[in-house]
Design a protein that fits this description.
The chain has 322 residues and is an alpha/beta fold. It is 46% helix and 19% strand. The radius of gyration is 22 Å and the shape is globular.
Amino acid sequence: MKRRNLVRAATLVASLAFALPSHAQTWPSKPIKIVVPYQAGQGTDVGARLFAEQLTKALGQQVYVDNKPGAGGNIGTAEAARSANDGYTLLMGTVATQTMNEFLYPSVGYDSQKDFEPVALVAMLPMVISANPSFPVNSVSELVAAAKAKPDKIDIALPSTTARLVFELLKAQSGAPLFGVPYKGSATAMTEVTGGQLPVIIDTATATRSQVSGGKLKPLGITTLKSSELLPGVKSVAEQGFPGFEVTAWNALYAPKGTPKAIVDRLNAEVARILAQPETRQRLLQIGFEPAGGSPDLLAAFEKREREKWEPVIKAAGLKGD
């Protein structure tokens, strides 16, 4: 009887193996591309390159980043959505591409809910409001006061959709006459602010930290509810007279819809292993990421909550994508 049960079990395992698509059984057998829908050097790009490096080691195949910036992340995200669902093209999606852009643009070229398989929430990226060191304010509360004292004088560089949302919320809650200047990515915006062409920028902690440590920017406030270990000593916007103010960007790994579950599960497991490594966690914190993680189902549920959170905010503010 025991032998018969073993034979049945072996037969079941074999049948399940044959039921999997052949490419799922042999995956990966060639390099894997992670589409990053933003410029090189932006927060999402920096994090994606770290994970590409670690996934290369884990999977035994080269994993590389392909930057496809434009239209607030829509161009690269749409390209990833149209890619083959064989596990060789992935997307490093963001709060903007997966939950905000559909409410900002008349057409984004993809359906964030129908065109992708959630893989794993990778990291949370707090936003930072910072200024050129020569600009005579040292906090968000001082920035607001300066804007009210001299209307029409303070321009703020906005290199992402999330930065724009932070800007609009700050204007709404403070009543300050601030003016946003949109950019296609962090690199140009940072260059102009550190060079003194504009006084203030809103960007991820990832993109901001190196400029702060190099003395090229001074942080005015971070958009978490409380101060963060990512920027010790910097008060949150909420702690500076704007209770409840919170906007946190995030990155998550996705695959085109229909990617075999075996591949999605393998990727999720590898991301979990990477995030569990103390040295990886430390590297993430060093570049401005708060490590996340979780199952594909948890990512889907989180994404749904974020969409429900930001849809009314965007519509109430009348925001439109550029």
